Polyprenyl synthetase family protein (Algoriphagus formosus), 656 residues
Amino acid sequence: MTKNPIAPELLDKLENFLSTYSFGKKPDELYDPIRYILSLGGKRIRPLLSLLSYGLYQDNPEKILSQAAAIEVFHNFTLMHDDIMDEAPLRRGKATVHEKWNANVAILSGDVMLVRAYDLLLPSPADILGKLIQEFNQTAAEVCEGQQLDMNFELRDEVHEDEYIEMIRLKTAVLLGFALKLGAMLGRASEEDQKRLYDFGVNIGVGFQLKDDLLDVFADQAKFGKQVGGDIISNKKTFLLIKALELAKGEDEKVLKDWLAKKEFDPEEKVKAVKELYEKLGVRKLAENRMNDYFQSGFELLETFAQSENPYYQSLLEITQALVHREK
Amino acid sequence: MTKNPIAPELLDKLENFLSTYSFGKKPDELYDPIRYILSLGGKRIRPLLSLLSYGLYQDNPEKILSQAAAIEVFHNFTLMHDDIMDEAPLRRGKATVHEKWNANVAILSGDVMLVRAYDLLLPSPADILGKLIQEFNQTAAEVCEGQQLDMNFELRDEVHEDEYIEMIRLKTAVLLGFALKLGAMLGRASEEDQKRLYDFGVNIGVGFQLKDDLLDVFADQAKFGKQVGGDIISNKKTFLLIKALELAKGEDEKVLKDWLAKKEFDPEEKVKAVKELYEKLGVRKLAENRMNDYFQSGFELLETFAQSENPYYQSLLEITQALVHREK
């Protein structure tokens, strides 16, 4: 992902930490799913942001591996519970916990994961622990609010684009912001720096989610990991669909709503038709513009931290830029 | 419940705290269920134990209303999630959250409740906050372990009585122990006192659960709040059934196993038959002896705190004794 060796080295240490951390022993049904979901991998972008953000202020980010791991464990707890709610059969190409075990195991094992996330935050200086947990709590509650809004939106006929942006800010972006802020807090950054790093994270987080929406429809199938068009097939209320529903009039509106209402269809045909409508209505362009606005706001904030001699800054820039330009 | 005015006064303050605390605003589906489950009442025994335990060491237990409320919020979080897992339709005679809303709402709203429990612990002195959260985490993980063991046992043919006692220790008793320890920690009690109060709580907690098992079968229907015999009707693996399965031989074993296997039966007839077997096999007596052993061990520990002039001690003794002698 990057030429700078810092990120891969920190990621190695993080994997080692996560795979050797003792989440608990018995009963197996409670603790095996935690080890299982963490073994499925993922980019570990959130803990990496914490480590690099700390590196802007202090040497040896491996000192905060535990707190960085807390963010990853929390993130995976949300995935375990979201997968139950979304009835998702697969996570990173493998069976989800509620499929491999059952929903009750996924509920309870997820609950313990959340508790363990707090354990992982504890090796922090006493004078900032309270503030750190308070901010973590706020973020955690916001992530839950985002998930609830997401579920609510799926049942609503109309969702305004601002509501959608607010939902993805809560569900996805605030945790990226907090990951950066956590590293900055532990690195003893000023409150102003903490806030700017948080805002950088939130901005790129919203951008990343819009990018996800775009890739799901317009990615190059040869490079994309999963089926292109999945969101169109399932009528997922993405930024693209929300804008298309707002802008389509006359025949376009009829065609779009017919496709959304159809229970039986050829998936390829539906994807092709809706994709064409997205281009025709200009919603692809609108989404790209919106995404780029968020990326720009984010990177303008990051630039204020520019330290050419600090390898953590370089790495932070590289890995976030790589995510901006990813094709899968 | 008690003649001493301390407990009712503290309970009033606690209710007021819980009903005015802001758990969050939007979306409604996330926060209404929290207010709903807390409005269903309950004895609030756990937070009361924290407040009274604090009172053994410091005046004005209302100083730790927030931390006491954390215990009650955590307890109600476990009820919300357990009710999903147990597919329970009713909680304190009212619809459970997953029935009134749906399972997804109960999962996510429960998750936020757990987060809010941590928020409520935060107004604690910085020098003990870390230790306090660490102990809370251990207790929380143990409660989850107990719930998982309980679910596992329901699917097993044989459960040993020691396994059962360990399950109820984890699922029920450790939280009573921690509630007392929390008050003691905040009251700046010695580590030895903290441990003795914890052990008192665990012992009476195991006793209370055995009392629940006994009341469900042998309570006076006129005084008992719910249907006597519910555990027998549902084949619940209580201490009584576990011991009966161990001790029944020959015809008794056949009769017991026939009742357990029957899909269609007259509930009254089943309750009567199994109850008679429990008496005949002596398992009622065995359960009562076991329960009384735990109560005795508990109260011997509590007596070491005897302070005739301390009204909080008197209240602690009164309310726990009232639970020992309850008939519903």
